Amino acid sequence: MVMKKIGQWLKNLFLPPENTSTARRLMPYAIILVLFIGMLLGVAKGWEVTNTTEFCGTACHTMPPQYITHQLSDHARVTCEDCHLGRTELGTQIVRKIQYSWQTGSAMVLNNYEYPIIARNMRPSIDVCETCHYPQVFASDKLVDIKEYAQDEESTLKTTYLVLKTGGGSQREGLGYGIHWHIENPVYFLALDEERQEIPYIRVVNQDGSFNEYVDVESNFNTTQVQEDQLEKMDCISCHNRAAHAIERPDDAINGMLARGEIPSDIPYIRNQAGTVMRGTYASMEEAKTGIYNILTNYEKNMPDEYREYKVEIEQVADKLWAYYQNSVFMDQQMDWNTHPDNSQHRESPGCFRCHDGKHLTSDNEAIRLECNLCHSVPVVSGPEDFVTQIEVSRGVEPNNHKDTNWISLHHEAFDDTCSSCHTVEDPGGSSNTSFCSNSGCHGQSWEFVGFDAPRLRQILSAMITPTPEPTQIVIEPDAQLTYTDIAGLFDQCTDCHAENGMMGVNLSSYAAINAGNANGPIVIPGDAANSPLVRVQQSQPAHFAQFTNQDLNLIIAWIDNGALE
């Protein structure tokens, strides 16, 4: 009976009697129009709401780690759909949203997902990162200071300075080197695991269309097995894979809190004690909270005087550590700072060393370069007693052996007295920071992911190591006149910079070139070593970049004073 009445009402609404007024006849169309507009507004609002970070991060119980880490990242104001759908036309976005919603929705219904959550089917960076970060536009390098506090009573500060070579721009402009060389040049790689940590094969495409293939010599990988559809093109996300969801490691977090003054560094042993409670293994969040607040118990039990003096400050430290822990450890979703490797670094996970590990070689044993100053300057470590820190940014000519792609893997084998021509060499290979060769930023730590000790690499490199020849002893008869022929070998070390078309127009590669001088005049004045620019440069301050030994310089002076004979 009710359905019959509803049917009759709808019939009268859409098929009114002939004598019905015009307004009555238009009413059904007005209702349809209002419903259609309402539906459009509802769909638009639904689209807007479901694309918000709050909806994506809070509507699903699997997403708290992603939501919280995103809110704490540099990309907090970039919405989820900007990256996961990509900025493109609406129709394409709708199709992608349906695909992703089906993927995630079916996984939830069928319960066939697993923790930790790994993002799949990410959009390429040209659809995501490059809508804000345009790689062809010039960008400057970046000075970075890394503050670390020791585990001693004073929590002594150590600062490492380096220049990140992030400068962008196109090759057409003479730019595109350093870290972002990879964006300017086509690079393809084959990864064997989902997190892309194991990469046995890399292909670099040259401008003429040819390409170089690099293979991890320890992997037994056969290049004939490469399938083109398995290769991934390197882009921003290949390195910046945690740009919006990084979790800071405890040591870095504590160092950062100390640097910002959130943790007072004047509390005795505070760096040590904070690290101790953060390194604990906890089975639940309640247990973790108890363990972190045990920092108070540790001070009260082991350092009662300090506890009484700094009780309020230590309580505040515990609050800070617990807040950090809550934003970094998600036990239900099995996610913390160890879950996902961060490919933009090379200390806690392979990162850059997935390729730049020294053991990815061509068939001619040319390596993907492993160098401290390829993507950043050589790190300089400064302590609290250092009033001025000098950062070395080398722009000079390099010796030929430094240009070898295997140089870093070989340099400790090639170390000899000639190194002192350009570098300070006290405590070579040490970490005392007393010279260029004792840099604790390089030698003071273990590089777990570099192939220095890879057996096959060492076997290959052993054939490249040539013994350093003993220096030739120049023997001069007592009554003999010194000639250029006698001392010509002394100038060999100079020709890396001063050969044909050399720096400052100085050519020291032959007797005739030395006598020719440069645009400023002669560099050797026969019979007058004291006024010869060659000698004066060696004796001036600041010291010349490369130095003769005192013995060698005295021989050159004697040669010039004797008339600089050939």
Description:
There is one protein chain. This protein is of the alpha+beta class and 566 residues long. Among the domains are: 2-50, no CATH class; 250-326, no CATH class; 356-462, no CATH class; 484-561, no CATH class. It contains 19 helices and eight strands. It has a five-stranded antiparallel beta sheet, with no helix packed on it. Strand 1 and strand 2 (157-164) form a beta hairpin. The longest helix is centred in the first third of the chain and has 29 residues, at 22-50. The model has no long low-confidence stretch (mean pLDDT 87).
User: Which stretches of 5+ consecutive residues score pLDDT under 50?
Assistant: none
Tell me the β content. 5-15%
Dominant shape: elongated
The main pleated sheet reads as: 5 strands, antiparallel
Keywords:
3-stranded antiparallel sheet, 566 residues, alpha+beta, 5-stranded antiparallel sheet, single chain, 19 helices, elongated
Please write out the topology.
Layout: H1 2-14, H2 22-50, H3 53-58, H4 64-71, H5 80-84, H6 90-110, E1 142-149, E2 157-164, H7 181-184, E3 187-190, E4 201-205, E5 211-216, E6 232-233, H8 236-239, H9 250-260, H10 270-278, H11 285-302, H12 304-326, E7 360-361, E8 380-382, H13 407-414, H14 440-443, H15 455-462, H16 484-487, H17 511-516, H18 533-539, H19 550-561
Antiparallel strand pairs: 1-2, 2-8, 3-4, 3-6, 4-5, 5-7
Helix pairs in contact: 9-10, 9-12, 10-11, 11-12
